[in-house]
Amino acid sequence: MFDSPLSASAYEVLGVAADIDDEALRRAYRLRLRETHPDTGGDAAVFIRVQHAWELVGTPDARSSYDRRRGGDGGDAWRAPARSAKDTRPRPASYGAPGAWRRARYVALLQEWAGRDVDDPYAPALVHSAPRALRRLLADALAEEATADAVAGLGMGFTLWHGIRVGLPAGGEAHADEDAVDRLDHIVLGPSGLFGVMSADFGGIVGFRRGEITGPTLGHRAPVTSLLAQIRAVARATGVRFSGAIVVLPDDDLSLAATPLGTIRGLPVLVVRRSTLPTVLRAGMPGSRLIGGNELFDMRTRLRHGVRLS
């Protein structure tokens, strides 16, 4: 919940400065509990975040440990995952490196912003001081990696692609956020269908309005619009028909495990918690078309020959 480069700190969730004394911190926590409690009209998801913030800083030992992590120790969770020994269990065929292009861009832009070579681009103090656009790149890279890890156990009947380059038509579906349109994060093909998947981290709880994801942390981003544009571009380039579009967010940023947004431009759209994604992909999305047999083989062949990876 608080390990995203975009997340508010425990102190920010409690509405206090980081140097507040312990007694004032306790009073602030009690006030925030009353303000956010669902029984008094508060948001249940925010209420849970307030409770978790207190777990992190509510005792002197916990607070000291939290401050050290925020100040410079605890960047290990943001580094690229180490490649483990080969797993011998049956796993989906997988192509591409999730998060790789965003990590590379993050490091390059961070060094440009810092004006020097950076020894440790994942040091928490440096990350938290960087402009939000850079932190967003790192947060989305981490989200891609976490989604790839979540779907890696789907089994041999599935095929995965990560970091797909998208050729959008000139003057067509371009969006002000170029990061959101030039690559599709994931494609998942299996008996339940063919899905275009976006992994995102907006650094806070989101809502929905008219088929789009909304929230104070999104800025100008229109994730569903961007994802559908990416899917259409891949469909045109490869000659395949997608079954649905899925946006995957951190579990704590959604009040429900899965939220259908309806059928938009011919595709059912679903926003899901990351932990729910494997279940959805095995069972299929509401309203999506199951595929199998020769069609599944044909789609896999078309995608293997037509997909361009980062």
* Percent in helix: 40-55%
Q: Tally the structural domains.
A: 2
Q: Mean pLDDT, as a whole number? A: 87
Structural category: alpha/beta
SSE series: HHHHEHHHEEEEEHEEEHHE
Task: Enumerate how many helices there are, as a single number.
Answer: 10
* N-to-C span: 29 Å
Low-confidence segments, given as residue ranges, are 169-180
Q: Return Rg in Å.
A: 21 Å
State the total count of DSSP E strands. 10
Q: How much strand content do the residues show? A: 15-25%
**Any idea what the shape is?**
globular
Largest sheet: 8 strands, mixed
Keywords:
single chain, 310 residues, alpha/beta, Helix Hairpins, 2 domains, two-stranded antiparallel ribbon, 17% strand, globular
Describe it for me?
The protein is built from 10 helices and 10 strands. Helices cover 40% and strands 17% of the residues. The chain is α/β, with parallel strands linked by helices and 310 residues long. The strands form 2 sheets. Strands 1, 2, 3, 4, 7, 8, 9 and 10 form an 8-stranded mixed sheet that branches. Strands 5-6 form a two-stranded antiparallel ribbon. The chain has 2 domains: 10-71, DnaJ domain (Helix Hairpins); 82-309, no CATH class. The protein is globular. The chain has helices at 10-14, 22-36, 44-57, 60-71, 100-114, 124-129, 132-151, 223-238, 277-283, 293-306, and strands at 93-95, 159-165, 183-190, 193-199, 207-209, 212-214, 244-249, 258-264, 267-273, 308-309. Helix 2 runs antiparallel to helix 3 (44-57) and helix 5 runs antiparallel to helix 7.
